[in-house]
């Protein structure tokens, strides 16, 4: 049975664009609840400017307040050296860096060229070196940009190569704007794995155009066994017009387990957390399994047990 590693990014990627501040104790309680489900990784927060992302202004309090489960990797997004110093001080397990393969998207996101962002990550690596903190490099708009359209394969290769030379432990190929389709995912992912066979690849999909889980199947065919999801399907890219949330973690786990993959995740516990999430954010969420139930949930048909003559 193939092991597939499921990561949840709701508390960072999801909460960061919510209009109302999610209280710190609520974030901590949700992370602790997710930690008990068997997820391989939880992206807990981002050490970014409070002015830029007000909903994550409590990054230190969140990281220091959660109960650490040894089997779970607690990750945090970091944009620069200052963020890295804050993250290391909070003893995160992993720092996640992000650059866009698209120049236009990178400028919209961080007001830097792609090359400026990659060069700036050297300062981050010098801070992290020797601390034992793992490093992951994410590449946004890998599968398309709403401003530039298709991204050349060579552009993606360049970003992966630069990350690996910096010393990244893992690489995430992110469909930040929900433009990926299964054929593209299968072909590009195979090409990346062929060119960088030792790279530990994670795939990050959005369900903007309804192809999120289909793209996971294409990634599995290509040989990738690590996937990001967001509880309830929460999230979306603020710099992508019309973008909706990430693929839903509980829907992802449900599909994988139904197909015979082993995720190590207790789906029933995950569903309890997912069904409480709309009350936390104050609106409905696109996740399906929390509403419809698992395919193994059977119901009384209402048929009399003895035939009526």
| Biggest sheet record | 8 strands, parallel, barrel
Known CATH architecture: Alpha-Beta Barrel
Tally of domains? 1
Content-based structural category: alpha/beta
Helix content: 40-55%
Beta-sheet strand percentage?
A: 5-15%
Tally of strands: 8
Runs in which pLDDT lies below 50 for 5 or more consecutive residues are none
C-alpha-based Rg, rounded: 19 Å
CATH level-4 homologous superfamily: Aldolase class I
Strand arrangement, major sheet: 1-2-3-4-5-6-7-8
CATH class: Alpha Beta
Shape: globular
Alpha-carbon distance between the two ends: 50 Å
- Output the helix-strand order: EHHEHEHEHHEHEHEHEHHH
What features would you describe in this structure?
- With 309 residues, the protein is of the alpha/beta class.
- The protein has a single domain (5-284), classed as TIM Barrel (Alpha-Beta Barrel).
- Helix content is 40%, strand content 14%.
- The protein is built from twelve helices and eight strands.
- It has helices at 10-14, 24-35, 59-65, 81-89, 103-110, 114-128, 153-166, 182-195, 212-222, 249-258, 267-281, 289-292; strands spanning 5-8, 41-46, 73-77, 94-100, 134-140, 170-174, 201-204, 226-229.
- The chain has an eight-stranded parallel barrel, surrounded by seven helices.
- Helix 2 crosses helix 3, helix 6 (114-128) runs parallel beside helix 7 and helix 10 runs antiparallel to helix 11 (267-281).
- It is globular and about 75 Å long.
Secondary-structure map:
Elements: E1 5-8, H1 10-14, H2 24-35, E2 41-46, H3 59-65, E3 73-77, H4 81-89, E4 94-100, H5 103-110, H6 114-128, E5 134-140, H7 153-166, E6 170-174, H8 182-195, E7 201-204, H9 212-222, E8 226-229, H10 249-258, H11 267-281, H12 289-292
Helix pairs in contact: 2-3, 2-11, 4-6, 6-7, 8-9, 10-11
């Amino acid at each position: 049975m193939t092991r597939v590693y499921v990561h949840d990014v709701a508390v960072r990627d999801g909460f960061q664009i919510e209009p109302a501040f999610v209280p710190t104790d609520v974030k901590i309680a949700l992370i602790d609840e997710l930690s008990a489900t068997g997820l391989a990784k939880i992206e807990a927060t981002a050490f970014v400017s409070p002015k830029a992302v007000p909903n994550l202004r409590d990054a230190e309090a969140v990281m220091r307040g959660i109960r650490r489960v040894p089997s779970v990797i607690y990750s945090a997004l970091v944009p620069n050296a200052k963020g890295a110093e804050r993250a290391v001080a909070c003893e995160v397990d992993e720092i996640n860096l992000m650059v866009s393969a698209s120049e236009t998207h990178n400028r919209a996101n961080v007001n830097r060229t792609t090359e400026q962002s990659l060069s700036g990550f050297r300062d981050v690596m010098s801070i992290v070196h020797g601390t034992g903190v793992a490093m992951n490099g994410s590449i946004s708009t890998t599968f398309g940009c709403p401003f530039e359209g298709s991204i050349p394969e060579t552009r993606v290769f360049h970003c992966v190569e630069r990350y690996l030379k910096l010393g990244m432990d893992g690489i995430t190929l992110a469909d930040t704007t929900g433009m990926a389709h299964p054929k593209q995912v299968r072909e590009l992912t195979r090409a990346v794995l062929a060119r960088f066979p030792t790279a530990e690849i994670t795939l990050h999909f959005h369900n903007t155009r309804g192809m999120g889980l289909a793209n996971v199947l294409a990634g599995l065919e290509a040989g990738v066994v690590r996937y990001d999801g967001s509880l309830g399907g929460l999230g979306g890219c603020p710099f992508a017009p019309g973008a909706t949330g990430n693929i839903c973690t509980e829907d992802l786990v449900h599909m994988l387990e139904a197909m015979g993959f082993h995720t190590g995740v207790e789906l029933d516990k995950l569903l309890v957390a997912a069904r409480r999430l709309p009350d936390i954010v104050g609106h409905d969420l696109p996740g399906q399994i929390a509403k419809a139930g698992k395919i193994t949930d059977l119901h009384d048909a209402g048929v009399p047990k003895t035939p009526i003559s």
